[in-house]
Amino acid sequence: MPAERLKPNLKLARDAALAVLKLEGQSWSERLAGGWHPDLASEKEKATLLSLASMYLGLASTGRDGNPVAKFHLGNGAKLHLVNWAGDLSRKGLRQSAGLMVNYLYDLGGVEENHERFANGEIVYSRAVGRLMAP
Known about the structure:
Elements: H1 8-22, H2 28-33, H3 43-59, H4 68-75, E1 79-84, H5 91-97, E2 101-105, H6 111-119, H7 127-133
Antiparallel strand pairs: 1-2
Helix pairs in contact: 1-3, 3-7
């Protein structure tokens, strides 16, 4: 997610979160091969991963590099509702998303407006997701 698109406080949160992950000194693949699992993550690492995922999904999903699943749901008028820790503990889930799982909310009264906002580059997300962006 390009830093120039972030508000200053979110840029600081993103940079701090990335610094936490860099302290580990290994690539994601190396950490998974070494047995990384959400149950073994520190609270700081958990907050970091939730924050980065929320920023990516809630701010960058309209862009070219946005998540295709998020684009599908948000483009169809859903709201980014929750980002869940340890929601997908399959090998694929750990590899692709650190075990995070996302819930999208389809509120029939807001689907059309949410779709239009997404088409205009804005993503509708819950307060819970917004709070995760800058822990």
